[in-house]
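job 3f2a | input accepted
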Amino acid sequence: MAYVLQSASRDALGAATIRLDEHIDATGADGLKRLADDLFSVVGLLDREHALRRALADPATPSGARGGLADRLLDGKIGRPALDVVSDAVKSRWSRASDLLDGLESLARGAAFGVAEKDGSLDRVEDELFRFGRILDREPALSRLLSDTATPADKRVGLLRGVLGTKVTSVTATLLEQAVRNPRSRNLDVAAEELSERAAARRDRYVAHVRTPVRMTGEQEQRLTDSLTRLYGRPISLQVELDPELLGGLVVRVGGELIDGSVAGRLAAARRALPS
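job 3f2a | predicted structure (276 res):
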C-alpha cells in the first residue's frame, strides 16, 4: 500500500522490512503463511483497540516497556515469529500511533507476498490483483458493497469469496479478504491496484539488473546467476544491459542494493579517496 508516513515512521518501517525480508529468505511457505495470518490478526486487534494502539506507540513509554506489553498480551495467541516482528516494531519510534498500524499491515502483506515468492506464484498474484482492481473500477456497486463497514465483516468477506470462487491463488484471496475485512476508509479498487504494484516491487527482489561493458557468454551469465543465488539465498534471474562507459567489470543491482565492481566505479572511488 502507498502509506504516507512521517520520517521516524519511515525509518521504523524500513528497518522492520529489512528484518522481515531476511526472515522470508530463510523460511518456507507454510511458515510465512502462519506469520502473515498472525500479523493480520494483530492488525485487526489494533484497528479495533485504539487505546492499546496508542499505548504500544507512545514515545513517552520506554521501548522495552512497549515491547514487554506486546509480549504479555500476545504470547500464546500468535506464533513466536510474529510475536518477534510485533515486539521489534513496537520498540521502534513511530511518528503517530496510526503509523504503527500501517507498518504492521505492510509487514503482514510482505509476509503474504513471501508465500507467493516461495511457491513461484508472484507473477500470477500481481496479475490477479490488477485485474480485480479493474473489475471493481467497472463495477462500483460491488466495490461499495465490499467496502460498506455497516455490513458485518464476515458477510463482506463471504461476498468477496463468492465473487472470487476458486479463480485466484490463496495469496491473492488472503490479501483481498484482509483489505475487505479492515478497509480503514480506503476504496477497495485503489487498494487492489496498490497491492498489485507492491507485488511488482516484490518481484523485483528476484531480478538482478546487470550492466556490463561487453556482452556476457551464456556460461558467464550462469556463473553470475549461481553466485547471486547463493549470496541472496533465493533464486535470481538476470536482466543484462550493455554499457561501454563502464570500461570493465560489472554493476549489479538487486532490489535496493548496488554492487559496483566496474572499472569506472573503482576509478571514481579512488578519485574520491584522493586528498583535495
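job 3f2a | Residues 7-203 form one domain.
job 3f2a | closed
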